[in-house]
Amino acid sequence: MSRQSISFTKPNDEWLKAQVDNKEYSSKSELVNDLIRQARKQQVQIDWIRAKLEKAENSGFTNDSKENILAQSKSLLNG
């Protein structure tokens, strides 16, 4: 695993420490890695939605219902 040195603002550092103190995470590193995983998962959904919107804009319309698009979006969120 790659080792990094990063700095946090005081409020962010205090929040990180509180999460570790509350036993939500065993270390700041674990918490930061979890936040990055969540952000990466969200980016997958954003990219999917962007692609669907671009396709719809380029074709002028989509045959997918809004319910279908919403269901597919939620499916991506739930992995």
Q: What is the string of SSEs from the N terminus onward?
A: HHH
Contiguous uncertain segments of 5+ residues: none
Sheet-strand content, in percent, reads under 5%
Q: Largest sheet, described in full?
A: none
Give me the secondary-structure category.
mainly alpha
| Mean of residue pLDDT values | 90
Give me the number of helical elements.
3
Proportion in helices: over 70%
Distance between the termini: 24 Å
Number of strands: 0
Computed CA radius of gyration, to the nearest angstrom: 19 Å
Quick structural summary:
The chain has a domain of 38 residues. It has three helices and no strands. The longest helix has 32 residues.
Describe this entry's structure for a reader.
By secondary structure, the chain is mainly α. The relative contact order is 0.08. The two termini are 24 Å apart. The radius of gyration is 19 Å and the shape is elongated. It is built from 3 helices and no strands. The model has no long low-confidence stretch (mean pLDDT 90). Helices cover 71% and strands 0% of the residues.
List its salient traits:
79 residues, mainly alpha, 3 helices
List the helices and strands and how they pair.
Blueprint: H1 10-21, H2 28-59, H3 66-77
